[in-house]
Amino acid sequence: MTPPQRQRRHPKEQPPPPPVEPGEPGEPGKEKQPERLFVVAGPDGAERDADLDLVTLIVARADPPPSATPEQSALLRLCTTPLSVVELSAYLNLPFSMMTVVLTDMLTAGLVTARNPIVRQTVADRSILEAVMHGLQKL
């Protein structure tokens, strides 16, 4: 068995990259810049007091209006079935804090509804278990 070859820290001279033609997407300064978060958040000064958690489920109530931002339109298309805030954040590649701002604006506009997930009890209710047991005994 031969030992693996070690990589050099300073590789040998490599050919220079091909020159970039003007107007091509690889030209410096011509790449698509992402939107700044304050642009996505909309105007400041609005009261945002919705209590949103990572697992809060969001459901769309309406189709995207013509005045909706691209983020709001994407959220409404995604939320035809209940999705958590963290899932929406991952799908839209936006931080959680930004999602809460966008969702709060949409909640106040009545475009979406938010609900907490159903939490199951760790121990079943004794009366339900007894009713099931008596029902099985009667069979």
TrEMBL record:
Residues in the signal sequence:
none
Q: Name one Pfam family in it.
A: DUF742
**Family matches, as PANTHER family:** DUF742 DOMAIN-CONTAINING PROTEIN
User: Which protein are we looking at?
Assistant: DUF742 domain-containing protein
Q: What is the lineage of its organism?
A: Bacteria, Bacillati, Actinomycetota, Actinomycetes, Kitasatosporales
Write out the ranges of the annotated region (Disordered): 1-37
Q: Where is the composition biased (Basic residues)?
A: 1-11
Organism this protein belongs to: Streptomyces coerulescens
